[in-house]
Every structure is written in structure tokens, then in C-alpha cells.
Amino acid sequence: MGLSVELRDVSVKYGDFLALKNVNLYVETSEGLVILGPSGSGKSTLLRAVAGLTPVAHGRVYIGGKDVTDLPPDKRRISMLFQDLALFPHLNVFENVAFGLRLKRLPEEEVRRQVMWALELVRLEPQQFMGRKIYQLSGGQQQRVALARALVVQPEVLLLDEPFSHIDLDIKNQLLEELKILHNKLGFTLIYVTHDRFEAVEVGDRIALMRAGEIVQVGKPVDLYKKPRNRYVAEFFGEANIIPASLLGGTREGYAVIRPEDVVIGNSPTYKFKGQVIDITFLWHYLKVEIQSNGHIFKAYVDLETPIAVGDVVEFGFDAKDVYFVAE
Amino acid sequence: MRPLRLYTWALAAALYVPIGVMVALSFNNSKLPYVWGGFTLRWYQELLRWDQAWQAVFNSVVVALAVSFTATLLGMFMAYVLRQDKYLTISQVAVVMPEVSEALSFAAALWLVKTYVGVDLFGPVGVFLAHLAYTLPMAHVLLAPYMAYVSRSAVEAARIFGASELKTMTAVVMPILMPAFVATFLIVFANSFDTYVKTAFTTSPEFVTAPVLLWSYAARGRGDPTIYALASLMLLPSLVAAVIYFRAVKRYS
Q1: ipTM of the complex
Q2: All structural domains of chain B
């Protein structure tokens, strides 16, 4: 199972507004790709272009190597999980899941068998849940029904548009975990849209970071984190210290990116600074320390045991190997 | 707050006291409205024998049913097509206009059709069209807010599964809107059922509806309490409609 997805030079317009600008993207068979970006960056539009819900103004969309640009959504072998779930409020759990199967005119027995299969996949006990109305379910259970409804038609590509943005953190993490297991087990290609970088690293083999209708960088999470293409990527994908490169001496232009966990307080290696601690935050397994120095606020993650207090004047710094330079 | 409360009670009294008096008089064993002759059901017995009244009620029911069904269905399609915000204001204004226009203009239109086209629509068809023109905007305005319950994504989800536009309409949109449909149907029914002016201008002498019959007796002061009995009975559909309406709309909350 699973088909590759490719966008070649795809542009989407809403009236005069260019929501997607010549986007190129290749998603491999059975890969999990996360489209990450702030709201309005075009990530949902990209997903809708793959689904065939939004017409493309320019460019082609391929699924499994086949040009699907002019095909309707139901001919693309995709399924989609919507942000508001889009469950049918007038149907019970069984009929919601069966909706897509009934349209295929499968025999009743087959419909029943496949609905059971899908409900068990998402760990909803069929006997207990299939007769329930949608409004009788908790948020997490509704998510599971929506997922079962999307999976029951055995899609080659599963598209998810911020499906878990409205639920509690604990349930969200549990659902993300199960989604990963289902992805591995069933082998569909997964494209997951979110604005949340923590969600992104949970499900993404690779991440495509978007801004203003363009993909800024695509790569493995570690590449985006350690080798950001520019300041925008460095800032959006994790916390970062970004300072003018000139501050480190030499004639280099552009900016230096240093992750807070690479900042050392006290006896530091290559680059040395001095500053005053202005804030300390307890973050479970480390302290986040903010230090004012040279007109910048540096962030450092340090051990819980570090003897430090707000107001202290400290020496700090980082190693040359932990500095990554970007041009813009 | 006191004057406002007083006003509210006065308004309620102005609306309902005449109705209460009428219902009381339908049980009055006297032809004179200002003399209480004791309790009786004789006016209801006489009403049972009054064939013309039953024909009129029947006519009203037939027109009201036909109008409510047509207006609600058309109103729903209009609301569905015009559900995007940018059209909503224009459509609201455009469709509410006929509500403002008078029955007279409709009568004039029917007259023109009769004179120049040679088709006489005065009678059931004229009444139906006049009621439809007057209730369709109402149906549209009543249904439009409920379109929000049909989310764009629910329609798109159906599309992804391969549902045709017709299938999406019958399997997704209409079931979600069913309570609103029933509620609107009843309001349109109640409005059509007791409309006098628009009926009077567009009907023929042969096609008499219940409000027209009531009016023809009441206005000439020739009625006996039988017409109170008829009017009292005619309250029932409105009452039932009101109860069902509130129950149906509650399903959305």
C-alpha cells in the first residue's frame, strides 16, 4: 500500500491572492511528511490541492506517478481527516464509517465486516460504539471515528489537516502514537498539516516548512534543526539564539545560529561572553536561563542543579562546532 | 424596569385577550356577544353541519400544505446556494423585497395575465402563487442561519468518498437540515393558513378559504357564534405548529 505524491510547480489562487507559489514537493511511497507553518502560510491549501478540493491555477499534481490534476477527489485514492472532523451529525458511528463503503455499493455483509475492521483499528469497541450518535462521544472518540471513516476505504494516501488541534494534550499524544502505529502497519503515504512543531516531529519522517505560500526548507527534523536554511527556519523549528555573525569577530556576514542547549554557563570554549541573568524558568528536566549581553538576550538550557539566580553576572559561551551560519 | 414590564404585559394582553374572548364566546349560549347565556356546545354542533365552512377549511389546508412544501424546499435550495457571506446580505435584501410588496400588485399581475394572456389564474392557482411569493422569502430567511450546521468540510468529505452532488444533497445536507425544514414548514403553513388579504385579492368567488369565509361573515356583522367556534378550532394548527417548531429547533442546541 501507499503511493508517492508529487507537486510540480503548483500555484493556487484565491481571487487575486496567490496562496501557493510554484511549489515543488516529492513525497515518497509510505513516507510520513509533515507540512509545518504558521496560519496563512498555505499549508492547508497545499493539502487541498493534493486532495483535489481546490483547483490549481498552474502546475501538475501526481499521485503514484499518475497525473491527477484534473481528476476529482474520489478518483485520487486519497482520504482526508479534516480539522473540524466533518463527521455527519445525523448518522450514528456505524453509518458514518460505512458512508464511503455504501457509495461503492458493497453488499451489506461486506460493509459490516469492513466497518468492524476499521473500528477495531482505531480501538473503538464496535459493539459498544457503533450505535452511538456523534454528539454522545467525547472529543477523542470523535477523532477515532473520523480516522476510522478515513481508513475504511483503504486509501493509498492519508491527508490530515490539523486533526488534533482542538483536543487535550494527553489524548493528542496518544492519538499521534496510534496514528504512527497505523501508518507503519498499513503503509499508506501520510501527509500531515500542522502549525505545531512538537506534533510535527512526532509523525514526520521529513518536514516541509512553509512561509507565505512557499516551501522554505524540506528535510529530516534533525537537518531543519541543525542546518536551518535561514533565520525563519531556525526560529520556527525550535528555540534559537540568533545573533549577527559579526558579533563573533571576523568578517563573516549574515547571522549565527546557536541552539540553547549548546550554550554553556561558566568555563566556555571558543566564544566567550559576559552578561546578567534576567530570567530562569523551570522546564522539568532542565532550566531555561535568559542572559542579557551585548544588547542581546541569550537563551541557555542548563542542568537543574546549576547554582544560578536572577541578577547574577555570569560568563557563558559556546563551541565553534555548535555555531551554524545563515546568510539571511 | 417596571414600566417595561407593564408594557410587556399590556402587549401580551392586547394580543391574547381578544382571542380568549372569542374562544369564550364560542361556548356562549346566546347570540349576543355582550350577554352570557351559559355554557353550550351548540355552536360547535352547528359548525359540524356547515358544509361551506368545512370546504373553506379544506381549501385553506390544501393551499397551505402546497405552499409550505414548495416554499420551504425552494427556500432551502436558495439558502444553500447563497450561504456564502458575500452573497448573504444581497440575497437577504433581494428576497425580502416581495414580502414588502402588497397583495394588490399581485392582484394587478394576475389581472394583466388574465387580460393580455387570456389565462384566468384567480382562484386556487392565484392564491397559491400569492402565498408562495409571500412565504418564500420567509422560508429563505428562516433557513439561512441553519446552513452553518452544514459545514463545508462535511460536504467535501462526502465528495472525497465519491458522492455526487445530488447524493450529497440527499444523504448529507437535507438530513442535517431536516429539523429546520420541519420548523420552517410549520411557520410557512401557519402563515399561509390564516392569510386573508393576499387571498382575498387573488381568489375567485368559487374558491373560499377559511379566513375569507370568516371575514365575509365577521365584516358584515352577520355571524352567529358558529364563526367563533370555527375561529377557535382554527387556532389549533397554529398551536401545534408552535409546539413542534420549538421542539424541532431545540435539536440544534
Answers
A1: 0.81
A2: 37-252 (1.10.3720.10)
